[in-house]
């Protein structure tokens, strides 16, 4: 009886590397990853029967992809073109619809809907949706952005990030800011608890029982927070809070204070207070760049974990809850870890500006027409 000879299978270094990369595919490319593993196992030697047993596959499956690889190398592992009805929408029509989506607006609207575009282009709604998905277009979505206009933006970013990444010795770095106008809200109806298949719910209307302002400072090394609530948000209250910090910081340490350029922070009262204390060094964050101040991250935790769902029938109850949150935080503090260097931040902003800027000041980009 004639014995069928196996096709010779030898891999180059480039093919082996490409096949190993294919084996890491997940979800949408599981079949391709399996075929790559078949070829790699065959390259180790052995009959189709042995490879099939090792991978838990059929012998015919192993033989098929071995032959396909020998004939067409890595390209043979991809699916062949499938049969089906021919395309009814050509590339020119797709391009016209994409250009229309990006460069025009429908009458009496600021952006296209899939039904509106289908009616205007003569395509079906499902076709419009498929094309938009393929090109990553979502006309219904709108995001916001804000770029700092501070002329000293670069210098301030390097200064503040330098303190985060490499704090000075024999010194403490503190981030200070205020969370003003925190409302003591009482809902008109009791909250409905979470149940299987139903999230917790609350009434949309409320009664406000006053407001308070939280002054807080975060020690970037330890993660500890000093915080105090005041009835008003003025330079007088800020100076009182600076006294609180002064009393809590050891006398033998320099104090590097990171804060924004808010009006409360630069009154003559505050300037005189800082001038009398040479161990205090102020570092200002750029205008419109509160994300650079780490204490804002603590404010976000406070809002998310305590205030947003809290029920308060008095300002005193709100203040007590805030003080309790700070005490529990300080019982087991965890400092935030700053991971981006100043160069990374500036490079990211530069990429954003280059991507969204027109090619040159005298020309208008193709997508810079009416809002869409």
| End-to-end distance | 73 Å
Taking all Cα atoms into account, the compactness measure Rg is: 32 Å
Secondary-structure element series? HHHHHHHHEEEHEHEHHH
Helix content: 40-55%
Provide mean pLDDT, rounded: 88
Structural class: alpha/beta
- Strand runs, count: 5
Task: Tell me, briefly, the overall form.
Answer: elongated
Strand content: 5-15%
- State the strand order across the main sheet: 3-2-1-4-5
Low-pLDDT residue intervals, each spanning 5 or more residues: 363-372
Profile the largest sheet. 5 strands, mixed
The count of helical stretches stands at 13
Protein name: IS630 family transposase
Please describe what this structure looks like.
Residues 173-316 form the Tc1-like transposase DDE domain. It comes from Bradyrhizobium quebecense. This is IS630 family transposase. It holds the Pfam family HTH_32. With 372 residues, this protein is of the alpha/beta class. 42% of the residues lie in helices and 13% in strands. It contains 13 helices and five strands. A five-stranded mixed sheet has the order 3-2-1-4-5. Helix 1 (13-22) runs antiparallel to helix 2 and helix 3 (48-55) crosses helix 4 (59-72). The longest helix has 17 residues, at 315-331. It is elongated, with a radius of gyration of 32 Å. Mean pLDDT is 88; it is low at 363-372.
Q: What is this entry, summarized?
A:
The chain has 372 residues and is an alpha/beta fold.
């Amino acid at each position: 009886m004639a014995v069928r000879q196996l096709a010779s299978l030898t891999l180059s270094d480039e093919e082996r590397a490409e096949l190993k990369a294919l084996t890491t595919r997940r979800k949408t490319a599981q079949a391709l990853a399996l075929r790559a593993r078949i070829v790699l196992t065959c390259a180790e030697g052995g009959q189709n029967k042995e490879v099939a047993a090792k991978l838990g596959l059929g012998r015919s499956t192993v033989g098929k992809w071995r032959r396909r690889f020998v004939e067409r190398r890595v390209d043979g592992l991809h699916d062949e073109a499938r049969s089906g009805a021919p395309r009814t929408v050509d590339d020119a029509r797709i391009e016209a619809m994409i250009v229309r989506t990006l460069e025009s607006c429908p009458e009496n609207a600021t952006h296209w809907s899939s039904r509106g575009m289908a009616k205007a282009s003569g395509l079906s709604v499902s076709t419009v949706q498929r094309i938009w998905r393929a090109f990553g277009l979502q006309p219904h979505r709108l995001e916001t952005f804000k770029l700092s206009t501070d002329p000293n933006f670069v210098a301030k970013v390097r200064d503040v990030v330098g303190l985060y990444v490499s704090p000075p010795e024999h010194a403490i770095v503190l981030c200070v800011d205020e969370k003003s106008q925190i409302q003591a809200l009482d809902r008109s109806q009791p909250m409905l608890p979470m149940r299987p298949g139903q999230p917790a719910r609350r009434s949309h209307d409320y009664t406000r029982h006053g407001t308070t302002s939280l002054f807080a400072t975060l020690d970037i090394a330890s993660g500890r927070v000093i915080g105090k609530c005041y009835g008003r948000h003025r330079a007088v209250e800020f100076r009182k809070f600076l006294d609180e910090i002064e009393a809590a910081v050891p006398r033998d340490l320099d104090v590097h204070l990171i804060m924004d350029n808010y009006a409360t922070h630069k009154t003559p009262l505050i300037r005189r207070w800082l001038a009398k204390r040479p161990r205090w060094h102020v570092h200002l964050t750029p205008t419109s760049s509160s994300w650079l101040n780490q204490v804002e991250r603590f404010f976000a935790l406070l809002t998310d974990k305590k205030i947003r769902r809290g029920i308060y029938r008095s300002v005193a109850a709100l203040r007590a809850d805030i003080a309790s949150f700070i005490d529990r935080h300080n019982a087991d503090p965890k400092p935030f870890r700053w991971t981006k260097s100043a160069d990374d931040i500036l490079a990211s902003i530069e990429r954003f500006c280059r991507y969204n800027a027109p090619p040159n000041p005298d020309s208008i980009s193709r997508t810079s027409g009416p809002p869409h």
